[in-house]
Amino acid sequence: MNIEHKDISPTRKAVLVHYSAEEVASEDARLLSEFTRQVKIPGFRSGKADPKMVRSRYAKEIKKELKECLVQKSHQEGLSQVDFKIYRILEIETGSIEASAEATLKFTVDIIPQFDLPEYSGIPVTSASKIAGDEEVDQMINHILGQRAEFKPVEKIIEKGDYVRCGYTGKIGSELIETIVPEEKLYGTQKSTWEEAGAENTPGVSAVVEGLIGMEKGGTKEVSMDFPEDFKVEVLAGKSAIYEISVEEVREKILPEMDEAFFQSMQVKDEAEFKAQIKQTIEQRKANEVANANRQQLIDHLIEFVKIPLPESGLDSEREAILKDFMQKNLQAGVEREDFEKNKEALHASATQMAESRLKSLIILDMIADKESISVENDDLSRAIVQQASMRGQKPEAFVKELQKDRSQIDLLRRDIRIGKTLNLLLEKADISDEESKVEKAEAELKDSPVSDKTEA
């Protein structure tokens, strides 16, 4: 076996595995011997058939097996001899393989270019606070109360926070917006819809939402809406519109009392326990967010110091996965497929940028894992399977059956586990400081500085 490789691009090579006629003949003879032992031919005892007759009867099968054996041998022994790291095998060309003739197998592969790992001990990481403040607890309580609120019909002047059933029609000049952009019904005409008066950052026409304040049932009103220059609906961007609003019904939001019945429904005994439970929930969420943010700081630091071309097949796979995930989430949120087509180029560019960062980080972390001899044990895999199954609402056994149908999913799971263990190691080695300590330190330094002393004097 002789190995040769040729550059196709900085991240792609052709690896040629050459076999001499003698090597091919030896492999062919081995296969013929195996076939002779296993096949049954009338008139011959098992394993005693004439090899010439076996070859004659099973010529196609032997030839197919010879090709498969040489491919496997080339993959296991040939590719392991190259002095570069293969990222992915893209294509295998075998040509015509004949017994007792030279053979060359061509593997087209994407590779990971060689690079020097940056220093990964002591990476500076600023960790945000995991403590839930009183304001955050109160906001969460108000959110929970809001979910259990009653909406009582009232006859009164509309105030901020009231829920209003209304209709509105928008015009730019004398032209109805619903005829300008019929696909954007939210900004055109709504015959009957519910709005929260004065709500901030809500989808829809902000001038209508704000304009409801001060109106009452049966009333009408005109408001103006200046769409910003960068408004997502291009036809409306930078335009001024007039909306005519009519109010049909007003409902006041009545929050439930935090009494014994309420606490019982929340499975706590009193307000103190309720707040403690809310605080714990917030801090668990913040702990996860902080952990993810700290990991991202490590990744951002590492990729900043590594400048390498990336394998095309890896970029394609990562970009496709990012776009698929993005589309699934947005389709579930009610976004129309036509919107994706409108922003196709921008989405592709954004996904490409994300794919480059993700792939580069995976390559760097994989190299660190190799250097640190980080491996995935069966216990690691079992824990990950249980966790993934729980997130999917499946039994672990059912999830395992899914994985067994697609081995690539198991490989991805193993990769994610190994990357996670590598990031955990980097966090152990990192120079972590928290934001609160930094603020306290800065305030102390400012207080002790000569400038501060002069100011106080």
Helix segment tally: 16
CATH topology of the domain at 2-112: Alpha-Beta Plaits
> What do the pLDDT scores average to?
90
Sequence of secondary-structure elements: EEHHHEEEHEEEHEHEEHHHHHHHHEHH
Can you say what the CATH homologous superfamily of the domain at 2-112 is? Trigger factor ribosome-binding domain
Number of strands: 12
User: Unreliable segments (pLDDT under 50, ≥5 consecutive)?
Assistant: none
Rg, rounded, reads 34 Å
> How would you sum up the major sheet?
6 strands, antiparallel
What's the CATH class of the domain at 2-112, please? Answer: Alpha Beta
What percentage of amino acids are in beta strands? Answer: 15-25%
Q: What is the level-2 CATH architecture name of the domain at 2-112? A: 2-Layer Sandwich
Structure, explained:
The chain is of the alpha+beta class and 457 residues long. Among the domains are: 2-112, Trigger factor ribosome-binding domain (Alpha-Beta Plaits, 2-Layer Sandwich); 150-254, Chitinase A, domain 3 (Roll), CATH 3.10.50.40. Helices cover 51% and strands 19% of the residues. The protein contains 16 helices and 12 strands. The protein has helices at 21-38, 51-57, 59-78, 134-147, 177-180, 206-211, 260-265, 271-304, 312-332, 337-342, 344-371, 378-392, 396-405, 407-429, 435-448, 450-456, and strands at 2-9, 12-19, 85-93, 103-112, 124-127, 150-153, 163-172, 175-176, 189-196, 220-226, 240-254, 431-434. The strands form 3 sheets. Strands 6, 7, 8, 9, 10 and 11 form a 6-stranded antiparallel beta sheet that branches. The protein has a 4-stranded antiparallel beta sheet with strand order 1-2-4-3. A two-stranded parallel sheet has the order 5-12. The mean pLDDT is 90.
